[in-house]
Amino acid sequence: MSLRWGIVTAGLISHDFVNALNSYPDKGDQVIVAVAARDKGRAEAFAKLHNIEKAYGSYQEIATNKDINVVYIGALNPDHYPLTKMYLEHGKHVLCEKPFTLNVKQSESLIKLAKQKNLFLMEALWTRFSPAYIDLEKDIAAGKLGDVKFLEANFGIVCDAERMNKKELGGGAILDIGIYVLHLAQHVFKDEPSKITVSGSLYPSGVDECETIILDYPGGRRAVLNTQSRIALHNRATIYGTKGRVTLEDPFHFPDKVTTVDGSTKEYKQHTTNLHYNFWNSPGLAYQTLEVARCIKEGLIESPRMPHKDTLMLARLVANIRQQLGVHFDVDDEEYP
Description:
By secondary structure, this protein is α/β, with parallel strands linked by helices. The protein folds into two domains: 3-127, 3-Layer(aba) Sandwich (Rossmann fold); 131-267 and 307-333, 2-Layer Sandwich (Dihydrodipicolinate Reductase, domain 2), CATH 3.30.360.10. The chain is built from ten helices and 14 strands.
């Protein structure tokens, strides 16, 4: 069964996603057949650039196109829930950009719907499929670091985009870039933290500008995480064990260089393309599509590598952090089926 993608929105991340998939040499029988945007002109320009057959001026047209069996959603955060719901209801498998939704209730509702429809659903947390992260997981499991006790990670960028600082756009550092530092802690420690301590500041709109997060885990394990949306940080992460440490070099969330436990450097090369990318190391976006294709062909409704329980764990972490900082969205007061 070929995987026939519909792309939802013609924005920057959708460009990088399509560019990465189209240029990946071993993508198999995956093909992008349509793109949709609210502005049909933008969709048409996007389709021309990426050699996509169909361009639509509404998201509904992707839902009703029977030639599409899987959808990638690169829309703004508040649109993740309604769009994912619509595509699941129309029988499409869905890969939705992180953050999966704005809160736990929305995430639970979509996962429930996917199970009812027997459709594949995954949060597009591409970091989980980075070769460097896979190697890190193997090294920890093999005991190369000993008992992992501590990690630190920084992610800071100068971002004036409205998607970061506007509440009505689902903004805030924790949802935009904080997902990556939280994910690293989840990836390394697996458990939910027993204690979460947060200090941060807010934009005038009421969404978070920055935070320092301390996650304490059973057994004396700890993660110290920093996010900044107005200051560029040295965006690397170090994982410490009783036998040594591993550093994921900048950009840690999808590194092309890692300092290993023996002090040597391991490099991860990515495939090339003639088109530009908007974000760091975006060729790596292709790896998650390989997992989507594998899971759908095997009849799975969730990825064993990025399962629904991990998406919900991240959603609970974000909810706790937002609550401590006093960040509240109107949709938090709503109920979902």
